[in-house]
Amino acid sequence: MAKIEPIVGRYVWVPYEGTEYRMYFEEAGNPNGIPMICLHTAGTDGREWRHQLCDERIGKHFRVIAIDLPRHGKSIPPYDWYKENEEYKLTAKFYSGIVMAFSKALDLDKPVIMGSSMGGNICLHLAQDYENDVSALIAIEACEWSPGWHLDWLRHAHIHGGEVCATSVFGLMAPQSPDKYRWETWWYYSQGGPGIFKGDLYFYSFDHDFRGKTQSLSGKVPIYYMTGVYDFACTPEMTEEAAKNTKNSECIIMEEIGHFPMSENPDVFNRYLYPVLDKIVAAKQ
Amino acid sequence: MFDTSWMKRWQDAVNSNGPMSWIGKHLTADLMLGFGDKHFVVQFRNGKIDQFTDILGPETCYQLALRAPADSWQKFCAKVPPPMYNDIWAMAHPLHGKLQMDGDQKVLWQNMRAMFWAFDRMREI
Asked: Which of A119, A164, A174, A182 is the right S-S partner for A39, CB 3.0 to 4.6 Å?
């Protein structure tokens, strides 16, 4: 009998601010467990979470749901994307809004949100604007401000977008991470739509700037920061600074791993993640 | 390290590398590499290092220069490089500034995959 994974993929039409977005998501785990929405990094899609979706220990208590944001993976752009007057730029307002609209569309009750990179940074906005709608935030590779990535080279007619998007992030992964998983992550990055990685990085490097604002988060929702030591875009020091300014937070620095923990080295990452999830389960009981 | 003998071994590692034969098919560029106070101009032709020289003068031409302290390059070349030194873009990123890039930066972004693959061969010599 061939190995069949427990992941099931579906599409849902998500209404948000006058537009319906056809969003793809994959899920696995306990259908009656704590809902946990997993957010991918910039320019790629929910495939990054395949190891956590298949993890029995995680799935015992959680309904794990990995989404593709609109324009990513199997989630198509809005129908009029080709006649937009400006190039795509992800904003904090749309990002946080569409995630919570997805949660509402699936009738999820105060999900845990776990995201990496831009998916980690959006956790700060969710804590600010949706603290009554989420139960915990796992902000992976997150910080208050992450400059230097919104570059035109990433959407340039003279440059191979797929290869340059993938190669520019390859060094964000730790050399200790298995080659097979590092190059799988490279592969995901090579498959983004034109201009999508760059557009996401508008949020990552410009629209996300929590400097001076993190202290004002109420602390109602716990935030678990997790950052790998090889992340040169969001260094451990940058995460520690954010955590220091965040009430009701915990900061976990992960050795021998980089910016894509869930996909570049799932075994190491999951060892750091399990205790966090145990705390979330305990808080629910 | 970073002398003519070392450069020759890097040239051999790049030119004998199997994947470089297709990854680097369109890499044709002249680079200046600065390892501390030691500088070489390296001519890539169709993914091969055609020649290099440390004889630099008023007629020396190159498109892009990558310069870093020798200590930074040594860390980059380690079998398991430490954080922030494991990648050219990591060292060059504005947050860190451990490597300076000057010249036609488009050459780097157009050839990033092949160039980085070639630089990674420095860990094999």
From this structure: A119
| Phi, psi angle pair for A261, to nearest 5° | -55, -45
Mean pLDDT across chain B: 96
Phi, psi (deg, nearest 5) at residue A171: -70, -10
DSSP SS3 for A274: helix
Task: With a cut of 90, say whether residue A285 has pLDDT above it.
Answer: no
**Structural contact between residues A144 and A241, judged by C-beta atoms closer than 8 angstroms:** yes
Give the pLDDT confidence score for residue A110 in this predicted structure: 97
- CA A94/CA A89 separation, integer angstroms: 10
Spatial contact of A243 and A251, defined as CB atoms under 8 Å apart: yes
Q: Residue A269: phi, psi to the nearest 5?
A: -60, -45
User: Mean pLDDT throughout B89-118?
Assistant: 95
DSSP lists the bridge partners of residue A137 as A113, A223
Cβ proximity of A65 and A175 under 8 Å: no
Mind listing the pLDDT tens digit for each residue in B74-94?
A: 999 999 999 999 999 999 998
pTM above 0.90, yes or no: yes
Residues of A with a Cβ under 8 Å from any B Cβ are: 147-148, 153, 156, 158-160, 163-164, 166-168, 170-172, 174-176, 229-233, 235
d(CA A161, CA B24): 16
- Distances in Å between the alpha carbon of A210 and those of A17, A92, A165? 25, 11, 26
- Nearest-CA neighbor of A233 among B9, B115, B94, B77? B94
CB atoms within 10 A of CB B3: 11
What gap in Å lies between CA A199 and CA A71, rounded to an integer?
Answer: 10
Work out how many CB contacts closer than 8 A connect A with B.
Answer: 61
